[in-house]
Amino acid sequence: MAAPGAPVTVTVTYSNEKHSIQVASQQEDGEPTLQDMAVLIEQVTGVPVPFQKLIYKGKSLKELEQPLSALGVKNGCKVMLIGKRNSPEEEAELKKLKDLEKSVEQIANKLEEVNKEFTGIQKGFLAKDLQAEALKQLDKRIKGTAEQFMKILEQIDAINLPENFSDCKLKKKGLVKRVQVFLAQCDTIEGNIGQEMDKLQSKNLALAE
After folding, report:
1. What does the pLDDT average to over 110-137?
2. N or C: which end of the chain has fewer CB within 10 A?
């Protein structure tokens, strides 16, 4: 018997195709889940996860977060896939969205950096006389980051999708939500930086009097 967390080898049949896949867990020390298997199946067959119907021993596998072992899927098992591949046109639109998703990740890293540096200033990790200039720079950077997120939103918005491009529509909706969450974070951090700058200014004025 495979050790818990060990990869599970499964044969997937899809119309006339047969694919042997090795499903490993994406979590360290975790067990491979149905989600892990579905993502791999999408890679080898081109059928998007939301449109996969996976049949094992006559039963439909639905609970994506469940470990394969809990669903009775073991090494050497056969799983049947029913589902529709995306058209080349939809794949092209998906690629655009995936590229935008990568850009969102990169901008989110910048947001994270600004937040870390700002937290450091709040905790007093920077000499008092350097704080005002540092906050000014952070304010500039957070505004620039928010601007980049806005541009990405405009680019996502410019992607017009036909009604039947369900996978793309799902991805587009999810991406818009993520960018909106990041924009809200930018607003919060920008507000906090502003408050910190005001506090510093008040202190300096008090000292000057």
Report:
1. 92
2. C
